[in-house]
Each structure stands twice: as C-alpha cells, then as structure tokens.
C-alpha cells in the first residue's frame, strides 16, 4: 500500500520528486493522486480514501511535532475511531478531497471534481483539521498507553523511526521467535551465537506472499541493514515508515499551515519507490471494489472485526486498506509467521543441537534444507517405518544428520552428580568422596549366538597367563585387564545366568551391571532372546554395546543385523546413532580387542564412581548351598569396601563373613568397589539379585532379614499364588467355556528348592520340554536352599507341591508339611524330578474317550416297529452287539451317533449278530432310516492321556472353535 510519505515523494513518472505543494494546499492533491494516479495514467495500488486521510493526518502530526509516525494514526483512525469516519469534522473537507475520501460512501464522485478553494472553505478546512489534530493527539496518547497495534516508534540516531516494541505487529514477532529457535537449535562450527544469527539473517530471502504492512516496515526504516527474510516483498511494499523529524517535541505546537506540508516531506526510500512502481505487482481489481468492501464495513460497524489469516493475503494482494491495530490478532500474526517460514529459503546448518525428545520431521527438514519426503525416504530405506510419525527420536535425527554431514550436539549431557544420585547404591554423603571404579559388564544374547565363546576368549586372552588357570569358574564373575592407552585397566565380567525361562534373573543381572554386551550372531540376526536381553538392559538403564558375532561364518550378514537392531531402537553409531556395534568373531578372537576398548570407552563416559570408605553395599549374583561350607554367595560390591568379619544382611539371609574368595579362588580380606567375591558365613542361601549391605551388629542384621523374609512371604502368597501366565490353555478355557471336547485346563503350583542357582536353570529348561497347554506350571518360588517351614506355608496358601533337588527337608519341616497336608518330593536325579512332575501334571488331566470298532452293517429295508421305525440290516464286517454305540452314515456322511436300543434276529432279541447274518436294529431317538445307510458299531473306553495327546486335542478343539493356534 502506498502511503502519504511515498506518494508525496513520487514524481509524475513514478520517480521521487517534489510534491506539488500548490495542489496540496488546495486540497486537490490527494484526490487527484488517489484516483487518477500521478500522471493521470497510473493508479496507485492503494485505496484512495485511506491514502488521502493518511496523508492529511500524518502531515498534521508532523506539523505538530508529534513523535509518532503515520501508522498508529491510520490504524486507530481506520479501525477504532468511527467518529472520524462518519462525523462532521471531515465533511467540510469533502470538496477538497482528502477527508471526504475517508468516507467511502462518497469517495469516488467528489474525488474527481476539481475543488474550488475559497477562503471560507479554507477556514472550514482549518477548523476541521484542528479537530482532526486533537483526535490524533488523543489517539496517540491512548495508543502509547495500550500498545495496541500502534507500536511506539522512537527515533533512532539517524532519525529513522523504529519500533521499540519487540514484536509490534506479528511478523516481527515471527522473526523474533525464529531467532530464538536459531539460538536454541542451530550452531555453526566455530561461530559464536551472534554470528549464527547473522548467518541466518543474511541468507537470501524469497518474497513472502501476503506480506503485511508491518512485515515490510524494517526494510523501509533501515534499508541499509540486512533484511530479515520475511520482510522482503517489494511488490507489496508496505507504507514506508518515514523518518519523523528529530525535533518533534509535543510542546512545539504552532499554527497549522497547510503550506508547510510540502517542506516537511521526507525523502523517499528508492526501494519503496521502486516497489510502488514495480509492474510485477499490479493493482488487483478496480478501486471501486475495495470501496464496496469498505462500504459494507461502514454500514455495519458493529460487526465482529475478527479476520482470518487469509484475509491478510487478500487485502495485501488487493492493496486494500491496511488493517491495523487489534486486527493484527494472534491468528494473523501466526499466519504471517507461517507464511514467512514457508517462504524462507532454507540453508543447511552445520551443527544441529538435539535434545532427548528428538525433533519434529518438519523442523529437521528445515534445518537440513531438504524435503520431509526425502528424509522419510532415507529412513525407510534404512528400515525405519515411520507411518504417521511426526517426531523422530534422537537416534534417527543423528542418523539423518550423518547422511547430510551435519554434526549433532546433544543438548542434555548427563552430569556425573546426577548419575550418582540416580544410583541407589550411592548416598548423598558419598558424592564428595567418589573415586573411579572398574566397569561391571554382562554379556547377554540369544542361545548359541556365542556368549560363552566370547567370555572364554576374553578370559583366556585377557587374564594374566599365570592367573588364568586359577580362576574359579563357579564364582560367576571375573576380572580382566584391558589395555587402555597402554595402561591395563580392570574390567569385571559377570557370567550370565543364561536365558530361556530366566528372564527375572537376567533382569537382576542387568541391574548389577554398568554395561551390557549383547551378542547377536551375524548369521542369525535378532532373535526373541536378543529382544528380551535388550529390554532388560534398557529397563535397567544400562548402556548397550552390540557384538555382532560370527562374522567369519558363511552367510553372515552384519548389515541385516544392524538394520534389525535399528528397527527396535538401537541405531548403530556408524549410521549416526549412539549404539556401538562391533563386528567380531569370538571363535577366532577377531575384533575382540576393539570390543573391549569400546567397553572401556563407554565406561569412561559413564564416569563410574564409588566411595570405598564406607560400609559395603551391593548385589548377590550367585548363591548355592555347599555341602561342606554351607550357604555360599557371590557378591558384587557396588559401593564401599567389604571386609572379612563384616556382618551382612543379604535378602532374607544374614550372617558374619567367615571367609572371602576372589575370582581366582584366593582367600582375601577385602573387596573394594566393583569387586566380586564369594563369601561363607550366611545363615541361609540368598537369592541371586538380592541386595546386601554390611551392618553394625548381628541383631540388626537378623531383624532386617526377618522383616524382609516376612515381607517376601506375604508378597509371594498375595501376588503369585494362583496367578498363572496366559497360555494356550487359558485361552482355550475362555473360548470354549468347557464345551469343547478335549479341552481341560489345570494349573500346578510348584515350589522348587535346589542346591545351586544354576540347577534352577537346568530344571526349568528340562521342564520347558513338557507340553503345558493343559496343565500350566506356576513356579511360586525357585531358590537354592533346604526346604523350610516358609516353603510349606507357601505351598499351603497356594495348594502347591514342594519339589526339592539335591536338598534336604529337616524332620521338623517334614512333620509340619504332614500336618498341613503338603507334599514334599525330594530328588537326586533331575530326570526323576521331571518324570514325577510329568506324572503329576498328567494326573490332573481328564481321561480321554477312545472308540473301539466292532463291526458294520448295511440297511436293506426300513419297517415299522411299534411307534417308531427299525432298520433291516445285513452285518457286513465284525459284529453288532447289544447296547453298543452306533454311527449311521449316509453316502459317507454321519447322520446319527447314539446307542443301539434293540437288536433282533427273526423277532428274537439277541446279544450280538455276526458278519453275514441279517438283523433288525432299532434306536430310540432315530427313525429316519433309509435303504443303503451304513451302520458302524463301536464301543468307547476311557483312557489316560499323555501331556502331548492332551495338547494335540486342545489344538484340535481350538481349531474347531475357530481359534488360530
Ligand atoms: N564360526 C563361528 N562360530 C562361533 C563363533 N562364536 C561362537 N561360535 C559357535 O557357536 C556355537 C555356540 O556358541 P556358544 O558360545 O556356546 O553360544 P552361547 O550363546 O553361549 O550359547 P548358550 O550358552 O547355549 O546360550 C558354538 O558351536 C561356537 O563354536 C564365531 O565367532 N564364529
């Protein structure tokens, strides 16, 4: 939109030039320019009425020395001060054009009339202008008070009016928010933040559609400065904010001399002038249309003035009168911001800062200056399925950035103190006494993927030769020395408890560890237990290092493994993620050193610390009952120092340490942080995963152990008794409600006591071979140690059976069990235990009915017999016997199954009829005999089923019920 300032500086050819002062004086200029253009050919792309009024008011204000530009005046006048639009003070000016032109209802015709400036009329004009001036001053005062749209402008050094509000008109706010974002997320290598701004601001801008008056303001007010991107559309040049005269004190009010207007004219910015004459932005639509729109508004001034963002575009494109003030509502500002963002020409950043929450795809695309679809395509090639995903997690962002060679900075480095506080083994008092400790590493993974081979290789290659032979295999942990920068550093590896049905124990193992190596065979890929191991490690918040093993094998495909892992949230470092993945051959020892170095690097980043000068705390990683030594427990010290003679509480067990052995089987007196030792002296066998702590005296230890034992007992009884996992049989039960033949479901609660923790795994593995579709086993407790009274209590509460393997049940416990009618079964051989368990499970199964065929007969005639009908048959095979079951088949299809009620031969009732003889057969509830039917005679017997047979019948029954199995 053109403005008074720009108009007054344009010559008749559209170039800057002097304003015809005389015409202004006569009040002609505005109307002439507005409606016929400067030279009578070219029309201004601006609403004439608004233009005229702007000019008059602006110049009046300038004359009065007001310190605000034309914008607030126009804004308030146009929108808020209806008086000015309709009240008489403007009327007297009407013949001269400008004021009248504000009233759109009367604009066009009078504007074309040449005005006759009589003295009287001029006086009237002066009077009316006085009034206008007063109003302008009032409005100025009010606008400066509420800040509404009429942004306060202050004079800069060079006399250029600049907004002193941070975001006066929305678009500037958009710029502001953009800058904030830039600050937060964009960093450029070697550049300070301020230069980042500069880079962003200086980059080339494209034109912005729908640019509003305020959007263009800065380009006018400081044309020599870099133009913010969204402030650039010359063809929709906003009203230039002309510099207001520097010395414009309110007090300096002189008489209003219209003649002065010309001399006060500011010089026009050439860019603005060009914008105004720029032919690429022609006026859209005739002025009359604009006038009509405005007329509507005047007719209904009370109508809501809220406008949609699109209206901006239309009004700017049409060069309709600029709406200001509160019409610049939030929606409008947002629309302007969005448009500006759309129109920006993105420049790829060099460094991108990303938080843990990741980043929206559109934001990432913007920062990388690529299309969203390109990013999505790239990710889908990498195997990431992102349907309906709006936000990429940190790893995906890194991966994409790596592709575009953009460095990623993580915005939230975890401070060691925070980590320390998170670790439950550290107390607040420890924080200022922390020293570095070796990492504790666990190796997990799917069966046969090479865990043991890797552990063996590490053990053989990294334990000092003289010590290797002395390592006690049973301790479940050993320490190796890994050279880091030439210095051997300690690293503790835990023997993992295996996998299969041992999820809970593994979860405990992962909790103890600082780093988890997950072994994935390159020829097999991610398997169920790989997922399980990853889940445990993630749940425990343990960093994961992937060892892609067996790369030496034919068919090895490490890329596929990486792709599979990336799909479950582990993005390889080499793809921009943060999960180290090392390709190794555990068998040949290839790259195992690199794996260990990575372990140490990750450990270093974790800044693992502990306070050795305090009582010991840690976790039991293995426990067993030794016939000679009594309960044995392997402990990992996670904080403090454990000493021989310390009194420990260890889950439900307690006692004084009588002896301590390290991983080489040597007696030791002390174990510091991260050390694993085997101890003797507990009163009972603790559970792997139990936490331990050294306390001051035995009484405290006993009390705490008993409290814990009670709590655990109640927990087991309440939480576990009667609880079964969802199995096929439970589904079957719910589907069939017992109506389907062959489905019978049962649960067997088991309390398993063993000599070693490792035996549990062996027994569980063997038990897994038993089909459990019909009888599900619920292990309420599986622990090392002799059978105790509390085990019997648990069996009572859950109606379970106590199985003991290589353990004893003291006489008092046996007596107690007898009183409570609890069965204790003790075994020395694992297969005996399994066989008995199988028998117990099969004993719960319903007996199956089995058919025994007798013979068959063919129906030759049908005749009446009493109230019903009977079939005259010839026995073709076997025999038909009294009271047997019969099945009637017609053309191969079964039409009846039931029991034979009468069997006759020549009117005589007989017990059986053999092959080759005729007989009469009658069935009570079946009369629809037909010649040619086949009668099959059979008996049924009840038979015990094996678990496998029961399982097969369940499967068949489920299929019959339409359940997919
Ligand atoms: N070719 C090749 N074979 C390997 C490699 N690592 C392990 N194996 C073989 O894979 C098989 C299983 O290895 P283990 O180390 O027992 O696997 P595991 O994961 O410990 O198995 P479980 O203890 O049963 O869970 C063995 O026959 C190993 O010799 C390797 O890097 N290359």
UniProtKB/TrEMBL annotation:
GO biological process: translational initiation
Biased composition (Basic and acidic residues): 120-140, 199-208, 244-254, 308-321
Top-level division of the source organism's lineage: Eukaryota
Presence of keyword rRNA processing: no
Keywords: GTP-binding, Initiation factor, Nucleotide-binding, Protein biosynthesis
Low complexity bias spans: 214-228
A matching Pfam family: IF-2
Ranges of Polar residues composition bias in the record: 1-11, 154-164
InterPro entries (alphabetical): EF-G-like_DII, IF2_II, P-loop_NTPase, Small_GTP-bd, T_Tr_GTP-bd_dom, TF_IF2_bacterial-like, TIF_IF2, TIF_IF2_dom3
Record's compositionally biased regions (Pro residues): 89-98
Listed Gene3D superfamilies: P-loop containing nucleotide triphosphate hydrolases, Translation factors, Translation initiation factor IF- 2, domain 3
Domain Tr-type G: 436-609
Segments of this protein annotated with the region Disordered: 1-23, 67-262, 299-321
Keyword DNA repair part of the UniProt annotation: no
GO molecular function: GTP binding; GTPase activity; translation initiation factor activity
GO cellular component: a single term: cytoplasm
Family in the record: Belongs to the TRAFAC class translation factor GTPase superfamily. Classic translation factor GTPase family. IF-2 subfamily.
HAMAP family: IF_2_B
Function (record text): One of the essential components for the initiation of protein synthesis. Protects formylmethionyl-tRNA from spontaneous hydrolysis and promotes its binding to the 30S ribosomal subunits. Also involved in the hydrolysis of GTP during the formation of the 70S ribosomal complex.
Protein name: Translation initiation factor IF-2, chloroplastic
